[in-house]
Amino acid sequence: xxxxxxxxxxxxxxxxxxxxxxxxxxxxxxxxxxxxxxxxxxxxxxxxxxxxxxxxxxxxxxxxxxxxxxxxxxxxxxxxxxxxxxxxxxxxxxxxxxxxxxxxxxxxxxxxxxxxxxxxxxxxxxxxxxxxxxxxxxxxxxxxxxxxxxxxxxxxxxxxxxxxxxxxxxxxxxxxxxxxxxxxxxxxxxxxxxxxxxxxxxxxxxxxxxxxxxxxxxxxxxxxxxxxxxxxxxxxxxxxxxxxxxxxxxxxxxxxxxxxxxxxxxxxxxxxxxxxxxxxxxxxxxxxxxxxxxxxxxxxxxxxxxxxxxxxxxxxxxxxxxxxxxxxxxxxxxxxxxxxxxxxxxxxxxxxxxxxxxxxxxxxxxxxxxxxxxxxxxxxxxxxxxxxxxxxxxxxxxxxxxxxxxxxxxxxxxxxxxxxxxxxxxxxxxxxxxxxxxxxxxxxxxxxxxxxxxxxxxxxxxxxxxxxxxxxxxxxxxxxxxxxxxxxxxxxxxxxxxxxxxxxxxxxxxxxxxxxxxxxxxxxxxxxxxxxxxxxxxxxxxxxxxxxxxxxxxxxxxxxxxxxxxxxxxxxxxxxxxxxxxxxxxxxxxxxxxxxxxxxxxxxxxxxxxxxxxxxxxxxxxxxxxxxxxxxxxxxxxxxxxxxxxxxxxxxxxxxxxxxxxxxxxxxxxxxxxxxxxxxxxxxxxxxxxxxxxxxxxxxxxxxxxxxxxxxxxxxxxxxxxxxxxxxxxxxxxxxxxxxxxxxxxxxxxxxxxxxxxxxxxxxxxx
Length: 767
Prior knowledge:
Blueprint: E1 15-24, E2 28-37, E3 40-44, E4 56-59, E5 64-67, E6 72-76, E7 82-86, H1 90-116, H2 127-173, H3 179-256, H4 260-263, H5 265-270, H6 279-285, E8 298-302, H7 331-337, H8 368-372, E9 390-394, H9 395-400, H10 407-414, H11 418-431, E10 442-444, E11 451-456, E12 462-471, E13 474-482, E14 486-498, E15 502-508, E16 511-515, E17 521-524, E18 528-532, E19 540-551, E20 557-562, E21 575-581, E22 587-594, E23 598-613, E24 619-625, E25 629-633, H12 649-654, H13 670-676, H14 680-709, E26 732-736, E27 743-747, H15 751-757
Parallel strand pairs: 8-24, 9-10
Antiparallel strand pairs: 1-2, 1-7, 2-3, 3-4, 5-6, 6-7, 11-12, 12-13, 13-14, 14-15, 14-16, 15-18, 16-17, 17-19, 18-19, 19-20, 20-21, 21-22, 22-23, 23-24, 23-25, 26-27
Helix pairs in contact: 1-3, 2-3, 10-11, 13-14
């Protein structure tokens, strides 16, 4: 009445039988002969193939066995081998599962014992920490052992009662009953057999768990000791490499710098030799200064000491440019000394005391994905974002932050040399990115016609005005003028690309800087800003790309390179390098530093080809330079900046309320003010109101344009497309830039005069 009972396989026994193996979607399951032996499961098409052709083998020591349903199960080694198998019955499937689990446990124990055989000579971990860890592991193992003993006792009881149940059922089979009753008894018998097999499998699994825990404990101890030894070896190796690097650097320095006897025969003919009193100066000046723009293009080495000991009459231009003849006068000191109108010589005028704090940022959490998932397929610039991702400043105010280090342009205006002036302009260009390193918050998109004035005439000698001149695409015009002889203007439009893990922001448009005294006109463009970890992880910002600063009057150029961050790079993070050349391409200064900390420049005394080849096969240019001088260093952030959106001292004052500003000024924007005060829910509601008001105003302008184009009909064209938004900026005129040929907006004047009169009647109502 019932099928033969096969005994549960003992550990190490060979187990054989037919199973159905999944092949493909055309043939489905095919009958195959499987053999389990020595921890390996092999299969053949027929029993006759066992002697010569094995169709496949899987090692159970690292395999995973999973049951899918009453007859199906899967064996996989986590790699390319996966067997989908099906038994003829549930009982047969359970017998195979039990045999496979036992074989897997034995194979694993054999592998662990093989690994442990090499551990006998490994000393135990020294120290109290190792002893504590060992005792903890031993305590865990003892607990597991006691639990397994309890399970073993339960299993004995299950086996005892299961056997009694089977005997009773077997006796019932001998009784003559109806066919239906006999069938039910047979089914109950199979269930009882399945119950006993499952109980055995349970205890075997528990034993396997204990064996695994013991094996892993030994492996962990072994791995920990190996890691400690590895760390010691790495520390010793690192110390040796540092010594070798220092030795090689000294050897390279001595081999690269030309000795006086070879580099200047005229001095040798006079027999002049540096005296003992110059020894310390020579050692100081021969220090290696890494001012390298690109390792594939050039390298720099310190110039020969003879350049440092020449007088101003022997080296034309050196003593007049940046105080680099003796290295004793700083840039600030020389600029002040040469300018009789410096602040030290003027009477101190009391200035307005500005705020140094704003309310701390509330700790509100919001899932970005909850916003982005509803905006799939929409244009990125048109996605309405809550203020939770913003900072309480508008894009116009962020643009005004470019003037954080306006002193660099003040110093540049005093320079006699256009090449020296170029160095200050380059430092100013780099300094504008220093405020972005921790600023992951998004600034408010300005409303069309929104303005922002930054009047620092009394404190710093300059005035600045920004206006949002276009909304789609968003573009802002900026004009700043200083009493100290420079003008800065720009129109910046933003193009963005969302690339999944990061967002790239490409500023479009040129920046112009004009110095009145020399009439030098400089132009450049901004680099790409990348915001990483948009969806998952902590946001961080990087600047990368290249900038070419051009002096259109003299033809001088400065090529700056912002190196993108790389985890595997040996260079300092956020590195910026550059070379200042004249119109003939001759290098005069080498710039180096980081966009978030400082910039330095070194005067080039001599350049030559002959360094080691770059990646493209070209020879590097070797620049011999004087000692580097610091052009700019970032001012530390105010105390508690991490709770105030990482604002700088200037940024903290940008949204401070002021009297007399235009009604379109960003300081009067209500949603931005509410966010600064920590009332974010009200700010979100106000932001939606302002955006809807702006859309209504745009539709009204389009209707007016349509009525002007169709005065008789007074309706939109048949295609429904309407006319382009005919908005005209309030303080800027659209024209073609005479220097670059690009369409741009240039300040037409009249803002500051209107402010003095206090007549803002012509300003639009945008708030």
